[in-house]
Design a protein that fits this description.
It is a single chain. This protein folds into three domains: 186 residues, no CATH class; 211 residues, no CATH class; 160 residues, no CATH class. It contains 14 helices and 34 strands. Strand 12 and strand 13 form a beta hairpin.
């Protein structure tokens, strides 16, 4: 037993850790060598055969992955040379999804590309070189701007188009079509031949084409100038010019990539005959302008397009400021503008006039051009109701001085708000002479016809400065005037809204003096009248105690309610009115002396005609009748008796200035002794035609 125990073999010693590592290293080495051999074999086979045998598997696999039909009609090559993936195809075509209008997304007569293999899996696609001939691309969004043709994967949400990084390129006979029905935009572009070498573009990349934006046709010419930049990225100098809506638009700037314009400042300039036509392309309605030239810096950020540092002119007026267009669910325009000097002709479109017609032929011709009748001045141009309901806007506009011959206007401040068809100019303030005007104008196009309200307030203004352009002398005139116009009407034109308006107009003259060549005609003092007609000036100004020119407006007809001016010598009253519809004027002013006057006609002075051509009737029918009576008396009795027809006994009752200064209606007016007046109208009259 002891002998057997002594002869039993000893158990093997356990393997060392070093031996285990060596065994695993040999296994890994063998696997790596196998992979290298396999990869080399595959590479060698592909390199020798140029991968032509992969043509049908390529068509099948890529068609399955992209859910598009991919075909190669001619030669096909897919191989590594040595580490760059080489892809060559003749007659390559990739189909569009079923919803697209065009059947083909991309087609090329010949394509030869050297591609970084890992870029197909990670990061942005990188193409070392590209030769493309006879390329045809058709890029299209769906009607909801959700899907596009270049984003693969069935119903996947469309992604922005991304151009691969390209080091060198040769592109010939290539065309691109782009369509976005949501905007809507359609562009057919031709890419001029490109030859890029050594990571630099040898020539400028040129693009020309035509298309339509919304319903406006345009023409485009663009160049990418990169003498010191690569087509792969960094910096690319862009210059583009477009012709549309009678305007020329220039865009220039430096792009970090061929299609990367997000948050990139671009210089833009636009010139044309009418800025309203250009902005109408994006459904933004503004008044017409004369020829314009504007420059600004444009930055696109998401759905917003910001125009800053804007400067330029429209007509004979200057314009500067900034504005932003946001293309969200509803188009929104936000602007802050400044004009130092505004030509009065350039302001004509704000009430519906064509400024070119005003400049060439005057306001009456401009009114006729809007559809108004002969000898009319109220514009009959329709408000752009449909367009006003398609976009929203806010505007803050400051104007320094309005260049006008007759009425000096300055310091205009306009706050505009447009929301879903309701346009509010509130507040609108400006200085007229040394007086201030504040207005609130509302155009609500949500109702049909539009509901329009006017509330215009004239603060105390010196008559000498206000009427300086109409013959009133500033020196010697201390009189002032203030008043208010409140009207509400319906209509889609300025004329129609006023022709249906109701409300009140009142202008009040506190105590003061008035000195002018023709102001005292209304007093009909025959001696003063003759003196003024032949000597050309008054010996002293008229002293006004108080005065009120007020009208009640019903259905577009304004009736004197009342016209009452109390001067030191006379009480002037008025009757009649005017029509916003026909623009006819039928007013009669009469002056009754407070003291006995031998030479006084006691007959009214009439104002007739229309807004465009008012007529002063100094020798009225009543005065002619009285002259006839005087002649009859002189023949029948004595020559002295003939003067009785012109005698004013001086029984005019001075006005109580309280109701006058309060702007009260005719029924509330009183004499200085507190008795109701019977010599002023009550606000009712027949419709003036």
């Amino acid at each position: 037993m002891d002998t057997l125990a002594a002869t039993e073999p000893e158990p093997p010693a356990p393997a060392s850790h070093r031996d285990k590592r060596a065994r695993w290293w040999r296994i890994a080495r063998n696997i790596a060598l196998t992979l290298i051999v396999v990869v080399f074999t595959v590479w060698l086979v592909l390199f020798i055969t140029k991968g032509r045998f992969l043509k049908h598997p390529f068509e099948r696999i890529t068609s399955s992955l992209t859910t598009r039909k991919v075909q190669v009609q001619g030669d096909f090559q897919l191989y590594f040379a040595p580490f760059r993936l080489t892809f060559v195809a003749d007659g390559l075509s990739v189909s569009n999804p079923d919803w697209a209008k065009s059947n083909t997304l991309f087609a090329a007569r010949h394509i030869d590309a050297k591609i970084a293999p890992l870029s197909l899996i990670f990061g942005r696609r990188h193409v070392y070189s590209l030769a493309l001939d006879g390329g045809r691309g058709d890029l299209e969004w769906d009607a909801q701007h959700v899907r596009n043709t270049w984003t693969f994967g069935g119903d996947s949400k469309g992604k922005p188009f991304e151009v691969p990084l390209i080091d060198t390129a040769s592109v010939t006979d290539t065309h691109l079509r782009y369509s976005d029905p949501a905007m809507p935009l359609l562009a057919d572009l031709t890419i001029a031949p490109i030859l890029a070498k050594d990571t630099h573009i040898g020539k400028a990349v040129g693009i020309t084409g035509t298309g339509t934006f919304r319903t406006t046709p345009f023409k485009l010419s663009a160049r990418l100038l990169s003498p010191d930049a690569t087509i792969a990225g960094t910096k690319n100098r862009l210059e583009a010019r477009a012709w549309a809506a009678g305007s020329v638009i220039d865009v220039s700037g430096t792009l970090p990539g061929l299609t990367d314009v997000e948050d990139v400042p671009l210089k833009v300039a636009a010139t044309g005959h009418n800025l309203s036509q250009l902005l109408a392309v994006i459904d933004v309605a503004i008044p017409q302008t004369r020829r314009f030239a504007l420059k600004a810096t444009l930055v696109k950020h998401a759905d917003s397009y910001r125009f800053t540092d804007m400067t330029g002119t429209f007509g004979q007026s200057d314009l500067s400021g900034r504005f932003t267009v946001t293309n969200g669910k509803r188009l929104k325009l936000d602007a802050a503008l400044v004009t130092r000097r505004l030509d009065i002709v350039d302001a004509a479109p704000f009430i519906g006039y064509n400024p070119d017609v005003v400049a060439a032929k005057g306001a009456v011709a401009a009114a006729a051009a809007t559809g108004a009748g002969a000898s009319r001045v109220l514009p009959d141009a329709s408000l752009p109701v449909a367009m006003m309901q398609r976009f929203d806007a806010t505007l803050d506009w400051k104007v320094g001085v309005v260049e006008s011959k007759n009425v000096p206007v300055s310091n205009i401040a306009l706050a505009l708000s447009l929301e879903r068809g309701r346009l509010a100019l509130s507040p609108l303030t400006f200085t007229m002479a040394r007086g201030d005007v504040a207005a609130d104008l509302i155009f609500d196009t949500r109702d049909r016809p539009s509901a329009i309200s006017y509330d215009i307030r004239l603060k105390t203004t010196p008559l000498g400065r206000l009427l300086a352009g109409y013959g009133v002398a500033d020196s010697g005139t201390t009189g002032t005037i203030h008043g208010r116009i409140q009207l509400d009407g319906r209509g889609d034109t300025i004329h129609d809204s006023l022709a249906s308006a109701s409300g009140r107009i009142a202008f009040i003259m506190p105590h003061g003096t008035l000195w002018t060549q023709n102001a005292q005609l209304a007093e009909l003092d025959l001696g003063t009248f003759v003196s003024k007609m032949f000597q050309g000036k008054l010996k002293k100004p008229i002293e006004v105690n108080c005065g009120l020119l007020a009208f009640t407006v019903r259905g577009g007809t304004a009736t004197a309610d009342p016209i009452l001016i109390d001067t030191s010598k006379n009480v002037v009253t008025g009757r009649g009115g005017f029509s916003f519809d026909s623009e006819a004027v039928d007013l009669a002013f009469r002056a009754d002396g407070k003291k006995f006057s031998l030479f006084s006609g006691q007959s009214p002075v009439g104002i007739g005609g229309h807004f465009a051509s008012p007529k002063l009737q100094v020798i009225s029918p009543q005065l002619l009748t009285r002259a006839g009576v005087g002649v009859g008396l002189a023949v029948a009795a004595t020559p002295v008796a003939g003067l009785l027809a012109f005698v004013d006994v001086g029984d005019a009752k001075s006005a109580a200035c309280g109701p006058v200064l309060a702007g009260a209606r005719a029924t509330a007016q009183r004499t200085s002794k507190g008795k109701p007046r019977s010599d002023v109208g009550n606000g009712h009259t027949k419709k003036i035609s």
